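In keeping with the milestone schedule agreed at the kick-off meeting, the structural modelling team has produced records for the first pair of proteins. Each record is given below as a sequence line and a structure-token line. The laboratory manager (R.T.) confirmed that both were archived under the project's standard naming scheme.
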Amino acid sequence: MSETHFSKNRQEFAQFREGQKQNIKRAAYLDQAAGEPTGWNFYDEGESSFAISFKEVLKGKSLPDFLKSRFPNKTGELIMVEIGGPGYNLANDLKGLVKKSVSVCLTDNHLPLPNKIISPKLNHKVIEGDFSDQAVHRALAKEVKIEGVDFWVERFHHAWDFIVKNPGMLYHILRKNYRLMGPDSTMLTELWALDQNDIPLKREEMEAWRDSVNGKFSGKLQVDYNFPKELRIDKFPGAPKDLPTNKLT
């Protein structure tokens, strides 16, 4: 990815980030004042919401059931990362499976869902900042670099609207994330919605990339893509160090 991809939208993206921070802080304040934290449910949702977002690539399983079947020998030992929200409720819902969790979000409003008890023993850390910033990415890498991430999940929702819809940009983001993954791990990523107006990223390009990776790295790297948004990448021992590019660049 060239720097020009980012620089064209740098000012607009920066304004969006600051606007989001202020909106979140303002809404969090109003919710607290009214005693109604429910207005920010979407920002800190539990496992059932993620199971809906990734229903097809999870084959209809709940996140706990998926993680138990995917990592049968790592119950209670998983390292998890959530990108896009503070992650308290997700970490709390998976606390019997996850040893340590880290999330990255623009603003940590500390508003868990109502009637949910956050475990005082929860080993969860929030990194507040924009994930596209190198300093934030380095902070996350520092937290997980020894063991690597076992389970990575990100839902950017409308944040993708402010990122250049370019195959090279998508690969750049996925490659950075992939490098933080452990030798036996899974990544779930919610992409932007693809339609006839999203050019040059095309459904057939994503499917061709998926098929190429699965054919070349069978048993070592598995890509599952469900049009239009759901992407799952399973990394196994012997997988390539870098995410293969093929049709994405």
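The second protein of the pair:
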Amino acid sequence: MRLRCCLLLIACGWIAGCEKNDLVWEPPPLACNPIQIFREEQVSSFTSDELSILSLSAGDECLTVSFRAARCEESNWELSLAASSLVLGTDPPERSIRFLLNNAEGCPTVEQGVAEFDVTSLRLAGESTVILNVVGTDLSVAYNF
């Protein structure tokens, strides 16, 4: 009997110590960088420092790009992704994307980098695939979701 009372007190203390939010599982935030969506003509007209895309791959939520560019210090090298709001009505549908490199210093050293971008905002209702075409290249990747 004494053991039951002790266990009951421990359980009550544990439940009283929990907040309502402690009992709800929340998925961790994405580790991928956000993207911005612009009109097609804006995406095509953006300027970028020079970079070479080595590979592209699309997962459930993120687009991974491996690239090469001149770089002096890590803090002086920023890669972002702009996507077009225009969706081509092909099967599967297509969207234009553009990688934008901001390199604060022009350096002779060329290094390789990898970046990931959250592409969940590029999903389309009623579709399971979108082709992402990289502006200014012949590269594209199928984003399946």
